[in-house]
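USER: If only I could read backbone structure tokens as easily as an amino acid sequence. It would mean a lot if you studied the pair and described how this chain folds. Here is the record:
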Amino acid sequence: MGSVDEVLRALSIEIIPLGDRNITVLSVFIFLALLVAIVAFCVLAYRTYHEYLKNAFYETYEIKLDNAVRVSRRTDDGASRFVLVYPRWRYPNKDGSRDRRRKTNNILVGKSILEVGRFRVASTSPVQIIWLANALRKRGVSVERNSLEAKKYARAVRMRQTMFSYQTIESIISNYAESGNYAGFEEYCAQLYRAQGYKAVVTSRTGDGGFDIILYEGTVLSALVECKCFSQSHKVGRPHLQKLYGANVAYRAKKLIFITTSDFSAEAKEYARSPGVNMELVNGAKLLEMAGKAASTREAASLVMLDDWKLTREDLIGRYPPDYLPPNINMG
């Protein structure tokens, strides 16, 4: 009993006089216990409500949200839209990279926001918000294009219009080779394959690894494509084909395609027919034929497809610090 009495006496010690009443250790202990209980209840209520909103989002759109995102009620019920906030160093150099002269320099991440229906989804990852916007679009939900998408969409429209306007190989060469817009020619070729139903991904412009386009049938790698916009007198030789074949060692694509606005040398054609090479050669005449088919297909559809203008990792690289690049994942 002695130890119990000692505890009771300790709890009854007055620590703060307050008029006719005194604050005791016991009253402070009870107050702190109630405060902890209230905080715990609020945290539990918030988590429960957040989980409820995530489930409601899934029931509405059949998209499961990652635990890293936060869902809240939207204050208005206007158009679906999203805004991206890119990470940056607290103390950057002029090129946006980390200033290593400062010891306490950390990356700052804001919240990218997507508003759709009655939901507001926030994430510190712009990539995650882009993926969610594209997933909604594929389910028929209209999501307004942000500024970066709008610029890419406008380019895709111009590309489609340009694709219809080419009548000769000379016009293609004039538009791309003579102006030095070789990246534009690669995108043009990618458009032709997208019109055939492929998913065509143009590789990074800095060191493409021996090929310019990766073709997918659904999610399955189908082919690697190399594009050369040459003058008609400049034939593609065997070494160009060998480089493309060598690049496939790591990818093991079942098909290789070489496109040129000119033609191929006899040695190149012989190499392409060699056992195990399995390389399709597309010269200027065949390229025009592909363009004609793509034009008729797209005119019937009359719309630019999502794959033509949706954002990719390459689109975001210039908006991230050069030493803190976006993750290399599929954004839908």
